[in-house]
Description:
The chain is mostly helical. It has 14 helices and no strands. Helix 9 (about 155-165) runs antiparallel to helix 10 and helix 10 runs antiparallel to helix 14 (about 270-300). The termini are far apart. The model has no long low-confidence stretch (mean pLDDT about 95).
Amino acid sequence: MTLAQRLWSYQAERFPLVKTAPLLACFSAASITVSAVMADRPVPGLTAYLIGFLLVFMLFFQLRVADEVKDAADDAKYRPERPIPRGLVTLRLIVSLGIVTVPLCFIAALIHGAGLVWLLGLTWVWLAAMTVEFGVPAWLKARPVLYLLSHMAIMPLIDLLLTGIEWLPHGSAAPALWLFIALSFSNGCVLEIGRKLWAPENERTGVDTYSGLWGPHRAAGVWTVFVAISALLLVGVGIATGFTVAFVVIAAAGLAICHAAARGYVTAPTPKAQERMDMLAGLWVFGCYATAGFLPLALGGMP
């Protein structure tokens, strides 16, 4: 295989563009748009949205690279079928690609303005701390809830960066923007837990999952709690943007679907149910951002 073919295979397994790109495009565009809508300002031009997508795309790739670094030993021991342990690509190559994105991110932020560079730097500081597990890897790994919360804290920082593309030129953000940023945190937990609700026969030694840690029943319950928190925050965004009823209907319908799926997984935690939970977590997050970012425009027109 050529280098291009090997990298294409790598992305399909570890950073699937067909799933990742649409979600990140929705996330970045919604963040910029909702910041404008909440402040009753016109949405910015296409350049702002392009910068937002490029930044979030490269940051999420950097997150993938950081995971490859900190999980290298466990992957070699417990997951030898993954691209790096089996020799499809080298860790050095993937890290080098991640390093290349650093100046590209800096340039993209600098094009927008110096203020965005500071928000980008803040995000990188947290990413670096995550990569070394905040200097206490064994202690943190023994506390899975704290591990989850500390790692998902990067989501509000990324969202602060994305919304900053809109509000920095105006000097301040809308007071209610914290609802959307908090939504990013809870949605990060929905995604992270949702992709680690496995069927018992798929559980593997050395591979941490929430279903393996807590059991399917409790893990699905925690996942549902985070979905409910996201639903409440989504309703809060609806109230802040003046479209309460529409947001309540969508949030309630989505929560009901997620709750039913979680019950189905608990009743029969099969491989199909595992795939369903992973897919539904992504769809829930995509739906939240699409609703928060674009429904007010669709119902009320451009601010």
